[in-house]
């Protein structure tokens, strides 16, 4: 073992290198690597507000959290950020040794660059009022499935890069930056607030359908490296965009007219069945 200082071994006078059983480690004085420790079991999503009551009082005195204070806010595999925490600073929870599964930050408005990067067992994050998520904030969080950030309008480059299990996203973006959803697992996105989608926003992603009714610009290579053609519902032209097909945005009047027509057809069918039943009764 490279770099290990083995203090006690049991070997024969002559070692036959074809049989590894001739030598064995009886005792070691080197540490186990955190990367190969047995993983903790996945925990169920807790009642965040109840669990937050167990945080130390010190947690309710900060306005932000950084690398030096992060451990105060981790409890039973959950990152709990009280209402007073407005900012999660750069690299605050980067590559934690302690496994986390959920993050809850009801008062957080800003998540800075790489704040939660490389937390390989993170499953869900909830930020009801966050306004901006920085570059690479959740890179390589490959078990992340759900992101609740309904007021977030700003998303940095590579924010969810390699979130291959991301399937549920609530967000109100104005612009999709390069690499925003690089190699993510999400297949359907409602991005009706988005006005612009940059090149390489979906490189390697599983995306199949995007609704972006108010989008004014989609750059040529926004969907270039997706494995299948993407169906895009938008109001702008896709003439120059590659690897995507356009689905026209239906106006409210069109949808209303279609619904009325369907209701009319159904209504006539019901009336016809009633008349038929009445005639059968008379014939009987």
3D architecture notes:
The chain is α/β, with parallel strands linked by helices. It has a domain at 252-284. Helices cover 13% and strands 21% of the residues. It is built from 2 helices and 20 strands. Strands 4-5-7-9-11-13 form a 6-stranded mixed sheet. A 5-stranded parallel sheet has the order 3-6-8-10-12, with no helix packed on it.
Rounded to an integer in angstroms, the radius of gyration calculated over CA atoms is 28 Å
What does the overall shape look like? globular
How would a crystallographer describe the biggest sheet?
6 strands, mixed
Low-confidence stretches: 1-18, 20-26
* Through-space gap between termini: 94 Å
Extended strand count: 20
Physical arrangement of strands within the biggest beta sheet: 4-5-7-9-11-13
* Number of discrete helical segments: 2
Helix content class: 10-25%
Task: Please state roughly what percent of the residues sit in beta strands, choosing from under 5%, 5-15%, 15-25%, 25-35%, 35-45% or over 45%.
Answer: 15-25%
Structural class: alpha/beta
Summed up, what is this model?
The protein has two helices and 20 strands.
Structure characteristics:
alpha/beta; globular; 13% helix; six-stranded mixed sheet; disordered N terminus; 2 helices; five-stranded parallel sheet; 284 residues; single chain
Any chance you could write out the topology, listing elements then pairs?
Elements: E1 6-10, E2 24-28, H1 48-52, E3 64-65, E4 74-75, E5 78-80, E6 87-88, E7 102-104, E8 110-111, E9 124-126, E10 132-133, E11 146-149, E12 154-155, E13 168-171, E14 175-176, E15 188-190, E16 196-197, E17 209-212, E18 217-218, E19 230-234, E20 244-247, H2 252-283
Parallel strand pairs: 3-6, 5-7, 6-8, 7-9, 8-10, 9-11, 10-12, 11-13, 14-16, 15-17, 16-18, 17-19, 19-20
Antiparallel strand pairs: 1-2, 4-5
InterPro entries: LRR_5 (IPR026906), LRR_dom_sf (IPR032675)
Pfam family, one: LRR_5
Protein name: Leucine rich repeats-containing protein
């Amino acid at each position: 073992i490279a770099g290990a200082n083995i203090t006690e071994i049991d070997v024969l006078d002559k070692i036959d290198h074809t049989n590894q059983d001739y030598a064995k480690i009886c005792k070691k004085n080197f540490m186990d690597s955190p990367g190969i420790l047995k993983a903790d079991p996945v925990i169920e999503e807790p009642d965040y507000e109840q669990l937050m009551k167990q945080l130390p009082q010190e947690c309710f005195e900060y306005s932000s959290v950084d690398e030096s204070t992060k451990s105060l806010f981790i409890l039973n595999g959950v990152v709990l950020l009280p209402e007073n925490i407005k900012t999660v600073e750069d690299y605050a929870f980067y590559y934690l040794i302690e496994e986390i599964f959920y993050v809850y930050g009801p008062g957080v408005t800003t998540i800075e660059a790489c704040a939660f990067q490389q937390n390989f067992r993170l499953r869900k994050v909830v930020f009801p009022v966050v306004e901006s998520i920085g570059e690479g904030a959740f890179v390589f969080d490959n078990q992340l499935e759900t992101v609740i950030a309904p007021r977030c309008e700003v998303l940095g480059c590579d924010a969810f890069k390699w979130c291959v299990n991301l399937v549920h996203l609530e967000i109100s973006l104005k612009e999709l930056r390069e690499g925003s959803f690089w190699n993510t697992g999400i297949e359907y996105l409602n991005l009706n607030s988005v006005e612009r989608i940059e090149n390489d926003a979906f490189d390697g992603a599983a995306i199949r359908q995007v609704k972006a009714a108010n989008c004014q610009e989609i750059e040529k290579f926004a969907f270039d490296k997706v494995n299948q053609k993407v169906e895009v519902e938008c109001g702008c032209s896709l003439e120059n965009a590659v690897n995507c097909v356009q689905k026209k945005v239906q106006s409210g009047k069109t949808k209303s007219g279609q619904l009325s027509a369907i209701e009319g057809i159904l209504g006539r069918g019901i009336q016809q069945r009633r008349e038929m039943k009445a005639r059968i009764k008379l014939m009987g």
